Amino acid sequence: MSCIEARGLRKAFGTTVALDGIDLRVEEGRIVGIIGPNGAGKTTALNAMLGLIPYQGELRVLGRDPWKERDLLMRDVCFIADVAVLPRWIKVSQALDFVAGVHPRFDRAKAEDFLAKTSISLERRVKHLSKGMVAQLHLALIMAIDARLLVLDEPTLGLDILFRKQFYDSLLNDYFDRSRTIIVTTHQVEELQHILTDLLFIERGRVVLSCSMDEVESRYMEVTVNPDQVAAARTLKPIYERQVFGRTILMFDRVERGRLMQLGEVRTPNIADLFVAVMENQARVAQGAAI
Amino acid sequence: MNAQSTPITEPSFQWEGYAARISTAARPLYWSIRRELWENRYLYMAPLAAGAVFLSGVMVNMIAMRRRIAASSDYAAQVQGLLSSRYELLAGLMMATALILSIFYCLDALYGERRDRSILFWKSLPVSDVTAVISKLSIPVLVLPLLGFGITLATEYLMLLVSSAIFAGSGVSITGLWTQASVLRIPLIWLYHLVTVHGLWYAPLYAWLLLVSAWAPRAPFMWALLPPFVICGVEKLAFNTSYFLNLLQYRFMGSRSMQSHDHAQDFMASLLPHHFFSNPDLWTGLVVAAVFLFAAVRMRRSRGPI
After folding, report:
1. Among A164, B176, B197, B217, which is least packed by CB within 10 angstroms?
2. What is the rounded distance in angstroms from the CA atom of residue B82 to the CA atom of residue B64?
3. For the segment A140-149, what is each residue's pLDDT rounded down to a tens digit?
4. Which of A68, A49, A44 minimizes the C-alpha distance to A59?
5. Are B299 and B130 spatial neighbours (Cβ–Cβ below 8 Å)?
6. What values do phi and psi take at A238, rounded to 5?
7. Binary contact (A47, B31; C-beta < 8 A)
8. A102, B32: Cβ pair inside 8 Å?
9. Total structural domains in chain B?
């Protein structure tokens, strides 16, 4: 059974189409980054998976219909939404008590161990914690739950770089164990580069690229082309071209590595550049179709 | 497939399976109710404060009056009369406090969690929308009446103790206070009243407020009042009748006509169990409450933060 399976997932708010027929399949044990510009439908897609909004089309998360069985699904799924959602009035100890009370898979000792490594005291209220501490607290709660799927929507928004790094380090070292699945959206793409196993680019409610990181490495190549070979390189149909310090960098999709090595220095593009390339390419294709 | 049900292999273990199922259903409810009390500390602070204020008022009053009462020939009857009138006042005060708290609590219960976005946290836990709404309903229907009852009782006993001390200080025999004290037989009637009127009779009111709270895009207070106003106004304009207004009045006051001078007796008589539970209006009200609650659960499921 795959962890998430969507076919023709659609969601419209009034006349605005947020999800325009998404097909998706996420196997267990993957770390999938959903990447897209603002308003692309990332959060809507996650909300549909979490049973927070109704949708059209087919969607199964861990074999369940999220909209109809949210409470049962939440035994196996955890999520951190894109904004601080821990209630401001709650004490840290009360948050632990409550989650321990309602969640059959919550390991309180584990959460307390994690909190002991931070400067968060159990008697503080959330409103008196800093933004980073609130994120740490939420992460402590989430990581102590033995869930099969973790959904993170911009979990590190507004945190400084130290916290962000710590956040992902804890996630990878203390949480991820190959049997769990993590889905994450973020704008800080470069920080995720080494964590992700799969990439999903979406734009205007559609999937524009869905592939594993291994596939990205074998498919996409970026070449800093020697000046005298730019013209020759362009004949290989690069998908994207940019200038850095007067040098031309071209990105290729499915072009034989050996041929590219003759043109200059070859490397795997980073996700941010790949994202820009795919998005611009997409726009160009759309324009071409219009003409 | 239902993950909630424990696989039962042997029939002899069946009841344990049921017990486990009940406890898995009850735990989230129990913790959700505790959560409400953590968040809304005024639910018990306000009745406690009301009790304390009342008690100190009574103390001052008793100290002021003790000489006059001690001097009178039938002091026991006087004290008795004084205390029982105070008990009624206290009971009234507690009821009013509980009702006001209930109204404001219900209006904010499902609106506040959307406004501060914490609904996303609550929804990330395996607590169903039904459990969440029921836990919020149980505050005005169960928790506040019981709290009010406990605090009233405690205040009454404290009042008795305090007045005993005060009158003992003025050299008056105080045994009469305790033997004649009506406080000892009041509680059960008082508890019955709280459960029937505040729990069952007002249930549609609370359910309506919860529904508005779950739905309102903003200003739940206004949205709670607007429809009744509009209905009353339209009815008056179109038919020159006021059935709806009477209906609301009946629901609030427990009597169809406020003018009747034997209203109090009517009211008390209507509370007798065979009257109260055979009154179809009670059951109509409960059905209406159930419909409102069902709608509130649906609303909570589809509404996100605002």
Report:
1. B217
2. 13
3. 999 899 999 9
4. A49
5. no
6. -65, 150
7. no
8. yes
9. 1
What does the pLDDT look like over A148-172, one tens digit per residue? 999 998 888 878 888 888 888 888 8
Give domain status of residue B14, yes or no. no
Contact A89, B39 (CB under 8 A): yes
Is the separation of the CB atoms in A110 and A52 below 8 Å?
Answer: no
Q: Which helix (DSSP H) or strand (DSSP E) does residue B29 occupy?
A: helix B14-39
Nearest chain B Cα distance for residue A41, angstroms: 16
Instruction: Name the residue range of residue B291's domain.
Output: 40-302
Average pLDDT for chain A: 89
Residue B16: inside a domain = no
**Between A50, A80, A102, which is nearest B27 by CB?**
A102
**Strands of the sheet with A206-212, listed across from one edge:** A77-80, A149-153, A181-185, A31-35, A198-203, A206-212
- Select from A52, B113, A259, B58 the least CA-distant residue to A43: A52
Which of chain A's residues have a Cβ under 8 Å away from the Cβ of B129?
70-71
**Interface predicted TM-score (ipTM):** 0.89
Of B126, B131, B304, the CB nearest to A103: B126
Cross-chain residue pair B120–A52, CB shorter than 8 Å: yes
pLDDT digit string (tens) for A255-279? 888 888 888 889 989 888 898 898 8
Q: Per-residue pLDDT averaged across B59-78, rounded? A: 72
* pLDDT above 80 for B6: no
Question: Residue B105 corresponds to which tokens in the numbers above?
Answer: 């609590």
- Under 8 Å CB pairs connecting chains A and B tally to 89
Chain B hits for A83, Cβ within 8 Å: 117, 120, 305
Residues B249/B258, Cβ–Cβ less than 8 Å: yes
CB < 8 Å to A103, chain B = 125-126
Cβ neighbours of B2 in A, within 8 Å: 72
Who contacts B76 (Cβ-Cβ below 8 Å, separation ≥6)?
Answer: B173, B176, B177, B180
Asked if the C-beta of B115 comes within 8 angstroms of chain A's C-beta atoms, the answer is no
The dihedral region occupied by A21, where left means phi > 0, alpha psi between -120 and 50, and beta the remainder, is left
Q: Do A50 and B24 touch (CB under 8 A)?
A: no
Least confident of A23-37, A105-119, A242-256, B216-230: A242-256
- Comparing alpha-carbon positions, the chain A residue that sits nearest to B2 is A72
Residue B11 belongs to some domain of the structure? no
What pTM does this model have? Answer: 0.87
Whether B57 is in a domain gets the answer yes
- Other CB atoms within a 10 A radius of the CB of residue B159 amount to 22
